[in-house]
Specification:
Strand 3 (91-95), helix 3 (105-116) and strand 4 (120-125) form a beta-alpha-beta unit. This protein is an alpha/beta fold. The chain has helices at 3-21, 76-81, 105-116, 127-130, 134-157, 172-188, 262-278, 291-295; strands spanning 58-63, 67-72, 91-95, 120-125, 165-170, 192-198, 219-226, 241-245, 284-288, 307-309, 320-324, 350-352, 359-361. Belongs to the AB hydrolase superfamily. Lipase family. One of its GO terms (molecular function) is serine hydrolase activity.
Amino acid sequence: MSVNYYLNLFLSICSIISGLCDSSDPRSEQGYPTGLMSVCPGSTKPARIPRSQLKYLLFVVQGLGQSRKKYTYWAARSIAKDPRINFQRKTLLLALGYLDSTNFPISSMLANEYEARDYNVIMVDYQRFATVHYYLASRLMRPVGKHIAEVLTQLTELGLNASKIELLGFSLGGQTVSYIAKNFQRFTGRNISKITALEPSGPCFRTLAPNDRLDASNADFVEVIHTNIDGYGMAARMGHVDIFVNGGEYQPSELLLYPCTSTCSHFRVLALWVSALKNPGKFIAIKCDSIQQARDAKCYERLPTETNLMGLKTNRSNHGIFYLSTSKGYPYYLGPNGLNSEYASWKQISYVNDNDDDEIYT
């Protein structure tokens, strides 16, 4: 069966689980940047990974028709000689989320799409360090990022062009890529070309300064996609282009009886990004003046209307906050209809009835 079938099945299960585990109305509050687990005491304390444990930091190279080979932290020279690697192409380094592994479907789904677009694909498997208590995992991503940057630095010394390196991170990986990029800057004096952060983690990162989390200064261009900013994501501008999908809080459910709450909305970004890769130019976002304006889908009132695209065709010179409206089901894009407020999934999260102060959900 197709990848799209399994993707939709996975998201449907997420929607059911999310609905069963979260009894609250998903739109009972507008939400503000405090969100879930705003402060994690000690999460910024220095952490170190003993060299004996670096054998668990793995690099998986994919190419030649989705074949893979796994390398250790010490094998940069072997990676450079891998027949799947061509230094003339762009190189994507993929950083995964909390508890994730390159053996799970998420990495394959993303890697396959980039390989099909003629990228070198290197997936980093740091499951050993991400399968611990979340507080510790968020702290360990700092040294993990540093050691990944060491390998990238060695690869550039062996011929990899830094201007062709892109980082893609999902969830906790969306913050990990910032540590990779920061350390790469420190080691080489050069910037990563592009960072794409899909729903970068908010828990343990919400109140941190830019030097301790993802920030636009981390690469020549940083694109951030937000789908659950008050739950597992983060309500802050972190890139040159920040796209808040359907306001960024919760996504419309594909299942009638189950709302797409935090888990479903957080993972929805994966299906959105795969669809954006497959359908370039179809996800048209509209510019906003603030995150709150994006939350309330009021960016349609902003004049003159400015737009940008989600995906590989994003206009890198048009920086800012953007609102993207989608449909409920795959492939999600609305095309030019998304620029019409009548097609907004949620025009407003909630409003107060003027007559009796009862809260009405739209």
